[in-house]
Amino acid sequence: MIKTDEYGITKTLAAFAAGLSYEDLAPDVVDWVKYLCLDFAGVTLNGSTTDSARTVVRALEAVGRSGPSVIVGTDKRALPEYASMANGVAFHSLEMDDVNNEASLHPGVVAYPTAMAMADIAPVSGREFISAVVAGYDVMVRLGRALNPAEHYGRGFHPTGTCGAFGAATIAARLLRLEGETFVHALGIAGSQTAGSMEYLAQGAWTKRLHPGWAAHSGIWAALLARSGYSGPTTILEGRDGFLQAYSGNPDASLVLKDLGDEYQVTRTSIKPHSCCRYIQGPIDCLLDLRREYGINPADVAEVRIGVLSAGMKIISEPFEAKNNPRSIVDMQFSMPFGAAVALTHGRASLEEYKDGMPEDPLVKHVMERVQCVTDPKLDAIFPKSWPAWAEVVTTDGRTLRSELTYPKGDPENPVTWGEMRDKFNLLSKPVISSERQREIIDAIDSLDQLDDVRQFASLLSTEQNRGD
């Protein structure tokens, strides 16, 4: 058990993150890192084909940022900090990346691109990679939950971007072997780079996808600057004008260090089975359950009522007119009415449904127009420890069908199995790499703790020598 001492929150958290050893990690923690790494590989490979990811690569090429680091899913390489940015964007583009419910943020989209890129700055073994990822997840999640997610979102901030800068700085500082005050300065420098505006929701813009990539870029530079002697505030978290006070009107600083070292936050991470915002996942599970149980014909849907968490209401349900008329893929990813409609119409909410033209499908449109979203104090009472949901479908013949859940599919309490994770990886990566390369990546991740050099794994995510079967 790590105890807070007179040095304060920032220094105590930095000491924990710097001192964490691979030998401290139980086998199940190592297994979690491998499991989430496979998710990173599959989602990022597919995400590399999106317009937003390709635009980042074009921008890097235009200004000559070539270097040694792999840009996943391409035959391009860039300077490490820019490769991490590109890979963070690609990983986040599909809305299928991992999430911590209690902090309401996506740790993997920052942690894995940062740790992989750092292998081109300093020697990184598989075990060092694993322990750095664990430390990065812990820092991000602890800060996210201390901010109070609903409060942080209410101020217009995306916690993946804001907390992500600290997570990336932690990973980069560890892999540069920074210690003591130098490590603390890396966090202090990262604190002036915490960005991520929720205004992307207004127009379906791509900027949310940039948030983890920019956090990775910022965190790497924070560590590099600290290594060279640049100073940052050593009270960046708890100070009067520090991160917690500046980014939340109701922070709980005690949650940063609560149970530090007793449970690693990487094991409290959820996987997304559906290609949309996490706040939509639980209700979709409920609607898919109703469709399977009762064979609902979408044409027979008279009304759909969905219980939505208050913290997500403005993100996925408001304004009503915009959410019922999504105009871009980003709009679709953050529209509860659209997610409900494709679930009831197609029996899934996969990448195939989140594509241009789908909102104009007559049956999808029919259902979407009949969706009502409401908040429920009973749901909010156990948030954010759990993200419960319920859904009701009223049919034209007068039936009211209801389904509810406490833990959406993909939560640690209702997990995606290793087999299901491999299926997700194979499905997502199939358009980009060969089946032989898929097997090589799975094998490399299975033996991640045995790798002497993480660049061996990174090279498998490149298409330089792989043109498909």
Topology:
Elements (H helix, E strand, L loop, with lengths): L7 H12 L7 H21 L3 H12 L6 E2 L6 E2 L1 H13 L15 H11 L7 H22 L1 H6 L4 H17 L4 H11 L16 H21 L15 H5 L6 H4 L20 H17 L6 E8 L1 H7 L3 H4 L5 H5 L2 H11 L15 H7 L2 E5 L1 H4 L8 E7 L4 E6 L12 H12 L5 H12 L8 H6 L9
Parallel strand pairs: 3-4
Antiparallel strand pairs: 1-2, 3-5, 5-6
Tell me about this structure.
This protein has helices at 8-19, 27-47, 51-62, 80-92, 108-118, 126-147, 149-154, 159-175, 180-190, 207-227, 243-247, 254-257, 278-294, 310-316, 320-323, 329-333, 336-346, 362-368, 377-380, 418-429, 435-446, 455-460, and strands spanning 69-70, 77-78, 301-308, 371-375, 389-395, 400-405. A hairpin with a 4-residue loop joins strand 5 (389-395) and strand 6. The model is unreliable at 1-5 (pLDDT under 50). With 469 residues, the protein is of the alpha+beta class. It is globular.
Highlighted features:
single chain, 469 residues, alpha+beta, 4-stranded mixed β-sheet, 6% strand, disordered N terminus
Summarize this entry quickly.
This protein is α+β, with helices and mostly antiparallel strands and 469 residues long. 51% of the residues lie in helices and 6% in strands. It is built from 22 helices and six strands.
Please tally the β strands and state the result: 6
Tally the helices: what do you get?
22
The proportion of residues in beta strands is: 5-15%
Unreliable spans: 1-5
Radius of gyration: 21 Å
Structural class: alpha+beta
Sketch the major β-sheet: 4 strands, mixed
Inertia-based shape: globular
Order of helices and strands: HHHEEHHHHHHHHHHEHHHHHEHEEHHH
Please state the oligomeric state of the protein chains shown. single chain
Helix content: 40-55%
Widest sheet: strand ordering: 4-3-5-6
Mean model confidence by pLDDT = 95
Q: How far do the termini sit from each other?
A: 51 Å
